[in-house]
Amino acid sequence: MVSDSVKLYNQQRPHLSLKMKTPDEVHRASIEEINQSENLRSQVST
User: Fold this and answer.
1) Most buried one in 3, 18, 25, 37, CB count within 10 A?
2) Shortest CA distance to 13 belongs to which of 3, 25, 1, 27?
3) What is the pTM of this model?
4) For residue range 8-41, what is the model confidence (pLDDT) as tens digits?
């Protein structure tokens, strides 16, 4: 029951403070941004 609530909160319920995105969406976008940034850095340093 707790795991279902956490899943709902993080994956399905949009949050006003996150501009109506879910915490999961925001987290995944930040990880993607970090990966892209690291890829650009590695291209520049070679």
Assistant:
1) 25
2) 25
3) 0.75
4) 999 999 999 999 999 999 999 999 999 999 988 8
Name the H helices within 1-46: 2-7, 23-45
Neighbouring residues of 14: CB distance < 8 A, sequence distance ≥ 6:
20, 21, 22
CB 31 within 8 A of CB 19: no
Classify residue 15 by its DSSP letter.
Answer: B
Max intra-chain CA distance, the chain: 50
Question: Shortest CA distance to 7 belongs to which of 24, 27, 30?
Answer: 24
C-alpha to C-alpha distance for 6 and 44, rounded to whole angstroms = 40
- In this structure, what token pair is assigned to residue 11? 């994956």
